[in-house]
Structures are given as C-alpha cells and as structure tokens.
Amino acid sequence: MGLREDFLWGGATAANQCEGGYDAGGRGLANVDVIPVGEDRRPILTGKKKMFDFDDEHFYPAKEAIDMYHRYKEDIALFAEMGFKVYRLSIGWSRIFPNGDEQEPNEEGLQFYEDLFKECKKYGIEPLVTITHFDCPMHLIKEYGGWRNRKMIGFYENLCNVIFRRYKGLVKYWLTFNEINMILHAPFMGAGLYFEEGENEEQVKYQAAHHELVASAIATKIAHEVDPENHVGCMLAAGQYYPYTPNPEDVLLALEKDRESYFFIDVQSRGEYPAYALKELERKGIEIPMEDGDAEVLKEHTVDFISFSYYSSRVASADPDVKKTAGNLFATVKNPYLQTSEWGWQIDPLGLRTTMNTIYDRYQKPLFIVENGLGAVDVPDENGYVEDDYRIDYLAQHIQAMKDAVELDGVDLMGYTSWGCIDLVSAGTGEMKKRYGFIYVDRDNEGNGTLKRSKKKSFHWYKKVIETNGEDL
Ligand code: P53
C-alpha cells in the first residue's frame, strides 16, 4: 500500500511567471508579457480591454519576474536539495519561435531549454514540460487573432515538431495546454483572444477551443511517433462543483457547471465531442469549425494521462438571489463549511479526494496533480527565513487527502507537483506578494528587491515528505 515506489514528487512553475528575460536570447513578445499588475489586469486577461504592447502607465511583472532565466542553476540545485523527482516547467513559445510563424526556430531559445533540462537530469530530476502555459507569441495575436484562427494549429505543430525532436531523450512527460478550460474564463491569457464590440464571444471561444483540441491531438500523435517513450497529458483547472442545497435544480446545475470544464477533457481523453456539449452548442447557435480529418485525429490520438490543478472546490446555486463571490477567475458561491485564503480562495482538502475520484471514474487513466498550494503573504526575518506553518498545514492536509484517494479509493496517481515551488508572479493578480514557494524570493509587487533566494520552513518539511514518500507529513 501507499504511493507508488516511483511516485513523482516535485514542484511546478510557468515560464512567464518566473523566467523574466523577456527580450533575452532573441525572445519575441508574448501576450503574458503585456498583462500588467493593477485594476486593468482583469479586463485585459479576459479580452475585454486591448493591451498589445508595453506602455508607461503600467508595471509589467513578467518582464523580469524572478529572473530564473539567469538563475536556473541555483534554483534547480535547491529543488534537488529537497529531493525533487520531477520539475514541471513550461516552454516560452516566443523563445523558440519569436514571432510564431517562422520556418526556422531560434537556436538560442532551443539551447536555453536544452541546458535547463540537462541541469535537471544532472540531479536525476525528470522534466515535465507544459508546451503552452498561457503564452502565445504577440505576433500571432496581432496578425492572426490568436487561437480563433485555424492557422494556429500549424504554428503549434511546428513548435511541437521542433521540441519533440530536439529534446528526445531529455524529456518524456509533456502537457499540451495548461488549464485548457481557462479559455472560457481568461481568454486573452488562455488563448490570445480579445473581442470586438458586439462580437459573439462564445462562438469565438469554442472555435478557438476546437483549434486547441485538434492541436493537442496532433501534438500527441507527433510525440508518440518521435519517441514511443513520450507520455502526453491534458491539463484541467479542476475543482468539483457541489450543489449549494439538495434542491434538484442545484444538483443539476452543479453537474452542468462541472461539464463546462470536463468538456475539454472528454474530447482529449475519450476522443470525441460529448453529446451534452453538441446539444448545448447547437441550442446556442455555436458552430464548431470541424474540418475533414478532425474527428479522426481527435479519436485516434487521445492523451496518456490526465493532469490537473486543484486549489479549491466550487459551489453552484440555481437561485439567482444566492450571491457569487469572485475569489478567483471561477466565480463561485461561498461554501459556509470552508475557510478561505487571504485571497478568498476556499480551502477544501477533502474536495481534492472527491475531485480525484470523479476524474478517475470518468477517464480511467492515470492522474497527475500538477498544481496545488496556498498563495499567502509571507513575512521573512532578516535572513529571509519564513515560518510558514500555514502553508505546511495546507499542503499536509491536501497530500493526506490525495493519499486517501490512492490508498482507500484505488485511484492511480503518477505524481504531485505543488504550485510555485519557488515564489513567482501570480497569474491571476500579477502580484509577487501572493507567494506559494518553499523558497522565498526577495522581490515585491513594484519590482524592488535583491532577488535573493532563501529557504522557508516548508522547504525542510517538503524534503522530509519526499524522503518518506509521503509517510511523514
Ligand atoms: P494565482 C485561477 C483559478 C485556478 C487556477 O493562481 C488558476 C487561476 C488563475 O488565477 O491558475 C493556475 O497565481 C495557473 C497558474 C497560477 C496558479 O493557478 O492567480 O495554472 O499559472 O499561477 C495560481 O494565485
């Protein structure tokens, strides 16, 4: 009993939230670079307000982030010290194809990730690579409108062809799109989409989603052709919906809200559009731009495993008088049984076990938890040491629930990578103050600080968790 012997313990980051070096090594501009901190962030990442370049009025935290571009050796050494078996990171698309539509890749960008993967391998750390984590070359947005355009499939295919070949033997775990369902909630961040006045936004989102789903299947096909050792996963922003009351209307709504997200994974894992989605899209007059061969590609090249992020469960109420709170990009009803984080995210370890069971029942494929963690304010002492017992508590409870899903329910789980294993820029708010890490980084919301790294209390705790394969929490 217990977790697998080869359980993949580790941590996760995304290129734009930690690398910085936005114009280093020939890198091109991406959507994620031009999303600022502050009140304009929300309208920009949801595609309501256009921001295609830097201006003087805003601060853009991704430009420098925590400068991992120049410091990755030090950071990976710290991950190794904790005993990481896996490090989840993402590739900056515009490092490899600065504009996105070139024929030839940028060698400096390719070399950067090759060096980084080799650095991981030096310590026996397996890279788990997200091909796109909320990033899209800006040129593809300006010129083609982002993922609404079918041409994106070809550009993504070029990227995949290049990276699968170049990193063959170095990388064997791949995720095609981070939180693919985020396209519905943050379409500019998720898929480079912005909307014109009066445009049918849902049509654009589902059209773009279709392009991503086909691109994901093609990527899976190529990955398997290039190296049969490759394992390709999809990635869902997960979190079970609970009905607010036993009122049958709440129960049905909770099912429907879950389906909004599972729709993507149903296609990626079962290989076809589910019946409920076809009916719903038809009712709404939304047309899926299906072309010859799409159905076959989706059917034949389904994912090998299901990965997901889990921060919280969600609550659905059919009663219009029950108010939703917007604690994060998934607006949900407040659950009276749960505490919330400083950013209003509801904390529900048992919900992780429920979510894992639901997903495993639905797909019967190995699962991988690739994000989980607590965004909190940390107060370091003069040496940068943080006594983050609150983070340890959160993680211990979630890891216990995860173990219960494995040991008591028989869920097949490949690994666990906590989010933001080193402090990094928040995707939702752009703040540095919202920290998830085992490693503290001296930098604030305005970009001040030495960028010095230091170990928090949770660093030593997580090392012990990994050492004991999750026995000592
Ligand atoms: P931040 C919202 C809800 C669930 C997951 O989020 C989310 C978001 C975005 O805010 O995104 C994932 O940084 C995402 C990461 C992100 C992390 O959750 O807003 O994959 O890039 O940083 C945490 O606290």
TrEMBL record:
The keyword Protein transport does not apply. GO terms for molecular function: 6-phospho-beta-glucosidase activity. Belongs to the glycosyl hydrolase 1 family. SUPFAM superfamilies: (Trans)glycosidases. The active site is at residue 371. It comes from the Bacteria. Keywords: Glycosidase, Hydrolase. Signal peptide: none annotated. PROSITE patterns: GLYCOSYL_HYDROL_F1_1, GLYCOSYL_HYDROL_F1_2. This is 6-phospho-beta-glucosidase. GO terms for cellular component: cytosol. Pfam families: Glyco_hydro_1. The keyword Methyltransferase does not apply. Its EC number is 3.2.1.86. One of its GO terms (biological process) is carbohydrate catabolic process.
